[in-house]
Design brief:
Number of helices of chain A: 12
Helix content of chain A: 40-55%
Strand order of the largest sheet of chain A: 1-2-3-4-5-8-9-10
Largest sheet of chain A: 8 strands, parallel, barrel
Distance between the termini of chain A: 25 Å
Shape of chain A: globular
Largest interface: A-B, 53 and 53 residues
Oligomer: homodimer
CATH superfamily of chain A: Aldolase class I
Order of helices and strands of chain A: HEHEHHEHEHEHEEHEHEHEHH
Chain lengths: 273, 273
């Protein structure tokens, strides 16, 4: 999917919501455990109930990998279901991968070509030649971890290098990578005030903002400091939507939670004009 | 496996060689492609031929993930084969994972409990709460990326923070993490001269050194600067061993290449006394 198509979808749906499919057998409704593939059954129900309210889904790969081969089967079914039934949806493999060049190419092929995800999250620590293999894929997007929303972000990401925080060095340096136009960035919403400075460095890039909801960010704050005139934001919510209820009505409850956010987002998009 | 058991194995086998199982269908001998599971058939033959010459195997997970479910099945068979037939071998999941706390716990369970690897490689960028979930597993080892052997290492890892390179900040900071005794570190052998300073910061930790061979490091240099009195080194070779030949004799050729390194390692261990 091109960035332009993503922006079109945002305006059409009046939403820049990304729903995190962090599907956990210990948290999904009990009645689904009788299904042949409970993880996929859950995801399908959530997608059916919410796809008109969001523009992206983001399965965190750890949740699937934790169930071994069964988890991978559920992931394959989920991404195929999305690509066949909702090709307008932007899909994000939240994998946080990163390895030396020829190995990164293997991860890129696995997620971009075989699974046909539109994008993948990548850790920046190993630098240029670990990231560029992902950037080489046309109309695929590499979402680099810049500033994460967890406490450990302060261990290294906010440390100063030549008078500038490490995460800003990541933002600047990565903009010189080949095919940098295919870069997006993860920026934790718990630091909304940082967004002004981030926007000075990367005015045009899309930001994937986790942590609105369970991790404590504020939608209005993020939009105020992070939105650009191409919107430039995907805001993720996982648990607050997919686990809004763990009864028979879980899908309807998820749709309600998503609708609540979507309406707010429509308001924020209105301010753009 | 405890660190003490690993050190015992090193002395018993007179080797601190780790063999990287970066198994690639495009590089393995053609006759294996007729097997039901060519990846496992290749790994089994390599293990059968080399297990007495090395103390560790390190499958890079990207190579398996690239083949989807078939790849995961081959990985599961490989680790099970090692754990059943060669329980004295130290196993490393070269996964370079790292995520927020509860997600890291899922990766830890997948690799430590379900697949029963002895250790996993982890990227440090997200800090303490992304690493500690791995450290919580007793007699399991978390191998943190510090200084990698690729060109991109110079993008961030060697940048100065308060007069000290980022990778040294990673070494120091991580030593204060809970259960830091379960930490080992990846240190690229192409920078053997850096090992003196690294040993000042972490005199006792085991180092996993990739890049001897294909990536250009020197065994003698690494031992001179990196060895401690508990050996403290695992030196990895992947392509130089497993692809020593791609004919019918590939396993024997792998054993010859491994033997060549093992003999050199025995010489280096002799210098310890």
């Amino acid at each position: 999917m091109t960035t332009e198509e993503l922006v079109q979808q945002i305006h059409k749906k009046q939403s820049f919501l990304c729903i995190g499919l962090d599907t956990d057998l210990e948290k999904i409704p009990n009645h689904l455990l009788e299904e042949e593939d409970p993880i996929f059954a859950f995801n399908k129900a959530i997608i059916d109930a919410t796809h008109h309210l969001c523009v992206a889904y983001k399965p965190n790969i750890a949740f699937y990998e934790a169930y071994g081969i069964k988890g991978w089967q559920a992931l394959e079914k989920t991404i195929k279901y999305l690509n066949v039934n909702h090709p307008e949806i932007f899909t994000i493999a939240d994998a946080k991968r990163g390895d030396i060049g020829n190995t990164s190419t293997r991860y890129a092929k696995a997620f971009f070509e075989d699974l046909e995800f539109d994008s993948i999250t990548i850790a920046p620590y190993m630098g240029k030649d670990s990231v560029e293999p992902f950037l080489a894929f046309e109309n695929k997007h590499t979402i680099l971890l810049a500033l994460t929303s967890n406490q450990g972000a302060y261990d290294y990401q906010t440390k100063m290098i030549d008078g500038k925080e490490l995460y800003k060095t990541v933002l600047e340096t990565s903009q010189s990578y080949e095919n940098a136009k295919n870069l997006m960035y993860v920026v934790g919403a718990t630091k909304a005030s940082f967004l002004t400075e981030i926007r000075e460095l990367i005015p045009n890039s899309f930001l994937l903002v986790p942590g609105v909801g369970a991790q404590g960010g504020s939608l209005e704050e993020v939009c105020k400091y992070g939105m650009n005139n191409q919107v430039g934001l995907l805001i993720n919510s996982s648990r607050g939507i997919i686990y809004a209820s763990n009864n028979q009505d879980f899908a309807e409850a998820a749709a309600e939670s998503a609708k609540y956010i979507q309406v707010k987002m429509a308001g924020e998009l209105g301010k753009l004009k």
